[in-house]
Design a protein that fits this description.
130 residues; alpha+beta; 6-stranded mixed sheet; 6 strands; 38% strand
Length: 130
């Protein structure tokens, strides 16, 4: 099991943050622009852990070189079943420097956008160190 998957499944926020590169870029399934930086990415991931229910990884796919991973997941958000995938790229130090999330179906993506929108102020405060 990949260390990131283990950290998420253990809901270990410290271990998740430790696996992020300082210059990580997070690309959300529901936001137009990517979010650069470890602080905001860690805050977003904490927000996701607050809104997802019954989260579980169901498949792990890795390239032979070990720098790219795809972790397929299922969860519930606001009563909607969601299926998604975390696409991770790792830098030379083994830290995540690119983190892209895709989800389906559209109704669940819309529910996720609404739920995460409600987290925005808290995410921004956490990312700023507050």
């Amino acid at each position: 099991m990949h260390p990131f998957r283990k950290a998420v499944e253990d809901r270990d926020e410290t271990a998740i943050a430790a696996l992020l590169a300082e210059d990580v870029v997070f690309t959300s399934p529901v936001a137009f622009k990517p979010y650069p930086g470890k602080a905001v990415t860690a805050a977003i991931l904490r927000g996701v852990m607050r809104v997802f229910e019954d989260f579980t990884y169901v498949r792990e796919i890795a390239d032979p070189g070990g720098r790219d991973h795809a972790l397929v997941f299922t969860a519930t958000v606001a009563g909607r079943q969601i299926q998604g995938c975390d696409f991770l790229h790792f830098d030379e130090d083994g830290r995540i420097d690119e983190f892209t999330v895709m989800v389906r179906p559209l109704s669940a993506a819309q529910a996720l956008a609404e739920a995460m929108g409600a987290q925005f102020d808290r995410i921004a405060a956490e990312a700023a160190g507050g």
